[in-house]
TrEMBL record:
Residues 161-469 form the Glycosyl hydrolase family 67 catalytic domain. Residues 1-19 form the signal peptide. The active site is at E307 (proton donor), D381 (proton acceptor), E409 (proton acceptor). This is Xylan alpha-1,2-glucuronidase. One of its GO terms (biological process) is xylan catabolic process. It holds the Pfam family Glyco_hydro_67N. It catalyses: Hydrolysis of (1->2)-alpha-D-(4-O-methyl)glucuronosyl links in the main chain of hardwood xylans. It comes from Algoriphagus sanaruensis.
Length: 719
């Protein structure tokens, strides 16, 4: 009888779960498929003992109350005594040691502040499944990992698992404005409801914190890097304080963006000169006030002297002088100052690729200890593919963090399925050859090669008020994957895709193979139909959506013509010694290999070389033909993604199926749009015949030039 009741309950829960609108993200707990695992979970949930009491354990308790009924059909039981009824022990090492002297069985001292140990512990002949951290948040991470293992069918009751993150600050950057528009956001408005804060708490804040904690994210910057000084007023501090209070049990620290001219705008001063005593006093007072509201405030994130944002250069001061002044105000409170290396100014008459190194390399060693320079993955701007940023490896005494863009500004925004993990993996694994011959970007960022003690990985968020958070369901995979890589930048995209797919679509092996294939092919597909072979920045101006290789504006505007440099003879940006010499900023090993058009990986060819349309590629075909074939391959891959998805009809949840299916239809059309527009344009310049193997485009170049993308006000850049 009891058995039937459980089956009936499981059926009800699975039906309830049927219509999936994506809100639950990867925390959409479902009945455990494997019956042995289900009964193990059933037993474990029947006696949970916490060795302490604190807000993080309360958060864990709530998570278990949510998960257990969905997974097993029964509510969890929390025991008040640690032995008889108990099956699971949860606590910090210190808590466990006080009571039972268990510290010798579980040695986790090397696992740092956020690590955890999970596995069976035998005490007086009975085995307890135990999750231990050095701090309560470690226990939280362990519990999420355990729940994920149940959900994805990989839980092993007898296995010991130890984990600790390789990066200290695992951070989301929201580009959210105070009026709730989101710069480069494609999933609705900002989830921060400033108007109704601090009085009204949207339940989304808690779900947001849960989702982040479940993938190890421990820091968020709430506001746009194109900052508004009002966020630093007392009124807004009170609002931010409420969010910080909600996030704290989940181990998440709040950062805010600091507008460099705030002393003038909200402080009534005449200057923002970082060496002016009144300015210094303003920031000290502001920062002290911030810590009164948010005692564990993370620090400031600053974009200065870039795209019109104010900064120290207005006062003939350096980035170091600007950053250090703010860092000094934060230092007594243990705060961190994050200063962005994305400097982009129209004033300098140089290849934009070179600007960050030109400004930051001479300042190496001049930044305070609590400053970290946040460097975009590539030197231009989150293009579909970029070689790694030359600042990685070029400085020895400066903390460097990496910044990725999760929101798909240049990668199809919210209509396209592009799994970004392979792109990030490519960057993280890139060999920098500095400071050691085997150094990689990951090794610099996590400190193992660079020796830096302060480490950071930041991702520009793709989250908004859309019911499914990210607009496109597969945008969730990018959020998930970013979090996982901040925890361990050496994880493979395949593993991450597998985890996310199981958590989102269940464990059916055939579905898994297909969905993973779609995900893992998607980035290369997008590169092919947008900007193959090292082309870059040829999208529509301003909105950055569809193709715009014809977009001009003269040298100063750095628009498409400036970047592809196509003329009747050839195409590509010469950044070698005969051109802008940007290649000079890399290690000698890279300079040697990449300055040779025969040796450079073809994926970066036109990034660094200007070559004749008739240049012979490795395939033996001409460059013009290869460009055509790559664009065409992109379209073919998009079509394949769509046809593979169609075979999932009936095999996965119908709401999920239809959502993605409709968007893939749009993606195929957009891939054709990119291919046709770019090839017709390049053909008009090169005057070469259209490669015969490629589908002849419908419409002419004028038609593609006339297409306009309607831009919503919220996604326009401010500058
Ligand atoms: C890109 C983006 C801007 C953003 C900038 C930045 O240029 O288009 O909207 O402000 O990056 O990273 O600061």
């Amino acid at each position: 009888m009891k058995k039937y009741l459980i089956l009936a309950l499981l059926l009800i829960f699975s039906l309830q779960n049927f219509a999936k609108d994506g809100y639950e993200l990867w925390l959409d707990y479902r009945p455990i498929e494997n019956s042995i695992m289900r009964s193990e979970a059933d037993q474990l949930f029947s006696g949970i003992f916490f060795f302490g009491k604190n807000p993080t354990y309360e958060a864990i308790e709530k998570e278990l109350q949510l998960a257990a009924p969905k997974m097993t059909g029964k509510a969890p039981v929390f025991s008040s005594e640690r032995l008889n009824q108990t099956q699971i022990w949860l606590g910090t090492r210190e808590e466990l040691a006080q009571v039972l002297g268990l510290q010798n069985q579980i040695d986790i001292r090397n696992l740092g502040q956020d690590g955890y140990w999970m596995g069976p512990v035998v005490f007086q002949g009975k085995t307890y499944f135990t999750i231990v951290g050095n701090r309560p948040v470690g226990v939280l991470y362990g519990v999420f990992d355990w729940l994920k293992s149940l959900q994805s069918g990989s839980f092993d009751l007898n296995k010991v698992k130890m984990e600790s993150p390789k990066i200290q600050l695992r951070m989301l950057n929201h580009w959210d404005n105070l009026d709730r528009t989101v710069e480069r956001g494609y999933a609705g408005f900002s989830i921060w409801d400033w108007h109704r804060l601090p009085g009204y708490i949207d339940p989304r804040y808690i779900d947001y914190a849960r989702a982040n904690a479940s993938i190890g994210i421990n820091a968020v910057s709430l506001t746009n890097v194109n900052a508004n000084a009002r966020i630093l007023t007392s009124d807004f501090m009170k609002k931010a304080m409420v969010l910080a209070d909600i996030f704290r049990p989940y181990g998440i620290k709040v950062f805010l963006t600091a507008r460099f001219s705030a002393p003038i705008e909200i402080g009534g001063l005449k200057t923002a000169d970082p060496l002016d005593p009144e300015v210094i006093a303003f920031w000290k007072k502001k920062t002290d006030e911030m810590y009164q509201h948010i005692p564990d405030f993370g620090g400031y994130l600053v974009k200065a002297n870039s795209e019109g944002q104010p900064g120290p250069h207005e006062y003939q001061r350096t980035h170091a002088e600007g950053a250090n002044m703010l860092a000094a105000a934060l230092a007594p409170h243990g705060g961190v100052l994050i200063w962005r290396a994305f400097v982009y100014s129209h004033e300098i008459d140089e290849d934009r690729h070179k600007q960050a190194n030109l400004e930051f390399v001479p300042l190496d060693g001049k930044f305070r200890e609590n400053v970290i320079i946040q460097v975009k993955n590539g030197a231009i701007d989150f293009q579909p593919r970029e070689p790694f940023h030359p600042l990685f490896g070029a400085v020895k005494q400066t903390n460097l963090g990496v910044e990725f863009q999760i929101t798909q500004e240049y990668l199809g925004q919210a209509t396209q399925l592009v799994f970004l993990s392979p792109m990030w993996e490519e960057v993280l694994r890139s060999k920098t050859f500095r400071p050691t011959p085997t150094s990689t970007v990951a090794g610099i960022v996590d400190g193992s090669d660079s020796g830096q003690r302060l480490t950071l990985m930041a991702g520009v968020s793709n989250i908004g008020t859309d019911r499914n958070w990210t607009g496109h369901l597969f945008g969730q995979a990018n959020w998930y994957s970013f979090g996982r890589l901040t925890w361990d930048p050496y994880l493979s995209s395949e593993q991450i895709a597998e985890e996310w797919t199981k958590l989102t679509f269940g464990q059916n092996p055939e579905n898994l193979v297909k969905i993973k294939e779609i995900m893992l092919d998607s980035h290369e597909a997008a590169v092919n139909y947008m900007t193959p072979l090292g082309l870059h920045h040829i999208m529509g101006w301003d909105h950055h959506y569809g193709p715009g290789p014809w977009v001009t504006g003269g040298r100063a505007d750095w628009t498409a013509l400036y970047y592809h440099r196509a003329d009747s003879l050839g195409i590509g940006f010469d950044r070698t010694f005969t051109g802008s010499k940007a290649l000079e900023q890399y290690a000698p090993e890279i300079i040697r290999a990449w300055s040779d058009s025969e040796q450079i990986p073809e994926k970066y060819l036109l990034w660094f070389h200007h070559l004749s349309w008739d240049y012979t590629m490795k395939s033996g075909k001409t460059l013009w033909k290869e460009i055509g074939l790559h664009y065409d391959q992109g379209v073919k891959s998009a079509r394949k993604m769509k046809s593979t998805w169609e075979t999932l009809n009936g095999a996965i949840d119908p709401v999920q199926y239809s959502h993605v299916s409709q968007l893939l239809e749009i993606q195929v059309q957009e891939a054709e749009w990119w291919r046709n527009a770019c090839l017709l344009y390049f053909q008009s310049i090169s005057k070469r015949p259209f490669p015969s193997e490629i589908e002849q485009p419908e419409g002419d170049l004028e038609y593609y030039k006339s297409l306009r993308f309607p831009t919503a006000p919220g996604i326009r850049p401010k500058w």
